[in-house]
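Researcher: Please predict.
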Amino acid sequence: MRISKMPKEDEDKKLRYLTVYGFSVFVRSSIYPAGLSVLSVLLAPQFIQRDHSYDRDYRLLSFFWPPAANEVAHVQQLIAKGIVNETFLPGLPAYMAACSATSLVWLLWLAWRFYRDVRDRGGYIPTFKETGQPGLEQRLIQIALFCVLLAVALLLYSCFNLSETRSLRAPSVFDDPFSYTLKKCLILSYGYWMVGAASALFSLIAKNSLRLERIARRA
């Protein structure tokens, strides 16, 4: 891998540079799936306009995010209870398509991120002598675990049906189609991004441990 401005001689400086460079790539690359997710929310209503009345169509629309298909039965129950009216149904196909597209682009990004986390060089965590702060690696482990827990919570939450109460944050049956679609896609995006952040941090910690082992063997 050829990177401009990378130090040529000192191996530690190279690893520091590659570590910072790797995290900058992580942040910049996450802009693409986020942007595509927003585009899917904006464009889905333009392309998914016909009335989908067969279960097969719903399964196809929600192929990459199957929980979205559950909204059909849920909304039909709410219609029967008189909580929402039938005009809510036409917005669901675009909602399912946007959720599925959002899930797909983030899964592709994660696959690429896992590959980068395994193959890329780097993995330098400053020591106590360099920073004057003890337990930096332990803090990174805690942050990585927090990212895992938050990712699980967000992705599980995104499996829930639309809320039956008004909410500024949660997607609700009282929102317009654009609002509840955008809210659900944001929750999905944050969940997948947290998985990527946890992967990057665990990769950094593992590579730094291997680096320290190599130094110890040479000593």
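Model: The CA atoms of residues 5 and 17 lie 9 Å apart.
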